[in-house]
Structure formats: structure tokens, C-alpha cells
Write a structure and sequence with these properties.
D-amino Acid Aminotransferase, Chain A, domain 1, single chain, 3 domains, binds adenosine monophosphate, 550 residues, 20 helices, DNA ligase i, domain 1, alpha+beta, OB fold (Dihydrolipoamide Acetyltransferase, E2P), 5-stranded mixed β-sheet
Length: 550
Amino acid sequence: MEFAAFAERAGEIEAESADLEIVDHVTALLEEANDDLEVVARFVQGRVVPAWDSTTLDVGPSTCYEAIARAAGTNVSADDVEEQLAEVGEIGEVAAGYDFGGQQGLSAFTGGGADDLTVREVHETLTDLADSSGSGSQDRKVDLLFGLFNRCSSAEARYLARLVLSEMRIGVGEGTVRDAIAAAFDVPASRVERALQVSNDYGRVAVVARDEGLEGLDALELEVGRPVQAMLAQAGTVTGALEDWEVAAVEWKYDGARVQLHHDPDGETRVFSRNLEDVTDALPEVVEFADEHLEVSTILDGEVVAVDDAGEPLPFQEVLRRFRRKHDIAKARENVAVRPVFFDCLHADGEDLLEAPLTERHARLESLLTDEGLSILWHTDDPAAIESIDAEALEAGHEGIMLKDPDSAYSPGRRGKHWRKRKPDVETLDCVVTGAEWGEGRRATFLGTFELSIRDGDEYATVGKVATGITDEKLAELTELLEPHVRAQDGREVDLEPAVVFEVGAEEIQTSPTYSSGYALRFPRFIGVRHDKDPADADSLERVEALRKL
Ligand code: AMP
């Protein structure tokens, strides 16, 4: 395919605003691509290599400006190109504005004829560009790009410049290419989607759809060593999760960075970041972990956390520092160690598990890993139990919890409702503790189930109770703090004089006939004792009313 034909289609697509029409244009483009289908299916999305491949062209904007300037003529400098860009705002428009092809005697070849630039040549040159590294490589990159621009018409230059700088932006998203592949080669979009998820390569899927049809698509599988898009989470609440699923799978949310581990016991181990960048060299601990614990081929999804000498988690920034580290890894590792925790299993011992329910995938994970490196997954329909898990997570220095649909498949790249990170609390409130209950059984000597109140004029009005999510150790401490303030006791219930202030978080504030303030905290969570506050400094009914309106 001639690059001019690709550029023409790209121009039509860009000028179109209706989604369906865009799909029609992309479909036509794929049908016309013939031998270049693999490349065209990537180019139309602004990609030069498959999505699983983290190879970059490593062409900075200045390299590109330099090449454009050189092709534009002796009176144009890279600075001029940059100035134009500041004015016009978009590199494609700038490149399209120059008259290329007059340099170094090549003018005879431009404007049609035997030397028209082809998609294949552009691809080969860009691949060459990606491959050149080391000293002198920037000059070579400018030379290669110059060679391309010098043969470009205005329309070709527009899309070449954008392709090189990964700024295609013609309105073709992943869904568009999926639908276009389905339409062009008469296969169901849902099966194209599955094939895209496992292969993470639009070029390959387009070719397989055309040449092998549905059977070929369905035969595509995950490959150890080729990362897939990570499944993503959206914000959600405990209430919502339990309404939607009855039983929720609950897990700690680790404050680290996402990793996808690909381990082949007879071959290589690679580690990829959330952006599918190969971070293997920066994280030798993860490779060692795999060598030590995994005996079969696996693809695992998890998080790496930075830990201090005692194994306690360190802030997220420390992990990022390790991710970015390219040199002196051994030294970096001495300062901050990282530890992987895996929460999902996409492939084990030759078997793809993307479509298996979470519960099954996790069971598989448990069969592969001992306690070390394994994230625990609880199943519960009890909000109180979820509160406890949340409290333990926070206590252990993690971010909170993730709520997952136990029956859900692994959907690469999807920010769906199946994974929910618990929404941060609306706000925290400082409440006075005005009552409590003695515990039962193991907790009989502890006060628990604390009644929370806010100030209402000179009085206190109740807003809820916080019972769960407090460890035994903490309960002992709170009992010691509150017992001197017991005013009366009735069975297990005690009435407390207002003295101690708790900081409490909540998912929501609702109106309620149960409590004297007329409001109830939904999923209250004990955060800590405000030793610095007296009951007179606790939050007021006015504040609760104001928060409720937020
Ligand atoms: P966020 O980055 O705030 O959108 O939260 C989602 C991220 O939390 C994921 O991409 C993971 O990197 C991270 N995470 C931590 N713990 C878990 C877990 N147990 N399950 C899934 N994701 C987790």
C-alpha cells in the first residue's frame, strides 16, 4: 500500500466526527491494506510496534523537528519548526505546511511516480530507527527521518510526523479498530475483542481474522513473555458491592506499583509495569522470587511494594524510584527493597485463565504460591467483616481494600465494575463517645460498639455506632481510656460521660430516624482517638448537615 493512500484515508477519518462513519473508513482501509494489513492496523492507531512490545522509537521532538527542517530546505531551522509549532499547536499541521522533496537532488522523485513512499518502507525505516541506539544514533535517526520526510507530500508529512511522535489523534480508539476488523473480515466483534485481549496486537488479530477467520481468532492464546493490558478498578462502596454481588471478594489494596510477571521456568522471566514497559532489570527481587517459587509457566498480576528493613511497607514514591532506576540497581536495592504480592493468575502451566471466575483464578494462585507473595482473598457478605479487613489493611500500612466480584472474568484493559477500590470516606468526623457495650466471649473484658455523638447546641446527639475494624490491642487501650467515664450500666450497655473524641470516617451520611441527630453515618470506621480534642471541639450538627449536602 502506498503511504499516500494511507494518509488520504487518515485525512478522511480525521475529518469525520460520527463514530459509525469512522468505523466504515477504517474498515475500508483494512480491506485495502492487502500485504500491509498488519502494519496498517497498527499505524491507524498511531502504533509502530504491537501493544505488547515496549520498544519505542526513542525519537525526541527535537530530532523530529531537525529532520523536518532539513527536508524543508536550507532556509528552515529546527527552531523555525518549533516556532511554527507554538503558533499552530500541532506537529502534523506544521509538517504539512512545508514543501518537502527539494533537497539533495531528490526532487525528481517526488509528486508521484515510481518512487512513491510505501507503508512498508515507512515501517521498515521506523523499525530501523527504533533499533539504532548508542553513540551517534541520534544523528542516524535524523538522517532516517529526513529520508522519509524528503519524499512526503503534504498529507503524508502530516501523518508521518504524528506517527513518529506518537500523536496520531485521528479519533481511532481501540473499539473502532475492533469493530472495523469485525466488519472487514466478517467475524463477531466480541471474538475480535477476546483475540485482542489475549494477543495485545491489533496487527496480528487483523491478519488472523482475514486469513484464518473465526477459528484462527479463537485459537489465539496468551503468550508468556507478551504482556496483556491490566484489568482496572473503579471507585465503589461496600454498600454497592454487597447490593450487586451478595458476596464480595475482599482484598487489601497495596500501596505500590502494578506488575505483571511472565515466568517460563525453561526460559525467561520478564516483569512489566502497568504501562507494559519491561521493568525486569530494575526489579531483580521479582525475578528471584519467580525462580524460587514458581515451577511452571505462569502469568501473574500483582503489586510490588517497597519495604524497609523490618519488612514494613514504605510510601509508593519509593517503589517508583526503583522502577525508574536504570543503573546501579544493586545499590538501589540496598537502600530500598521491593517485595511482590500477587493477587491474580492469568495463566498457569499452559492454561489460560482469563475467562475463569476470580475465585477459581485465585485458587490457582494459591496452588502456585505459599504464603509468601500471595495476597489473601476473603469472601464475605458481612459488612462488619469487611470493616475489619479494612482496619487490618490500614493497620498494616496499606491503602485500604479492593472489592471484587467473585464470579468475574479477568478483563484486560477494562475499568469495569468488577473491581472496585473502596471510595475514600466522605470526610472524617470528630465524634464524642457517649456510650459503649461490653463485648462477649473473648472480648468480654473490652468495651466495644461505641456510640458516637456530635454537638447539638449544648447537648450531644447520636449519629451512629462504630463496632468493627478495631483490633483487640486497640480495644484494650480504648477500654482503659473510657472505663473511668462510665456513668451507668444496664446489662452490657454502658452510658459514658462525654470525654473522649474519636475520629471516624464514613462512606456516606444518611438521614435516619434511629439516631437523635436525625442522621446516620453509613459504614463508620474508627480512625483514631483525638487526644488533642475535648468534647466541646467535636463536630457539630451543622457540619454534618453541611457534609450531607456535598
Ligand atoms: P488506582 O490506581 O487507585 O486506580 O487503584 C487501582 C490499582 O491498585 C491497581 O492498578 C493496582 O496497581 C493497585 N492494587 C493494589 N492492591 C490491589 C489488589 N489487591 N487488587 C487489584 N489492584 C490492586
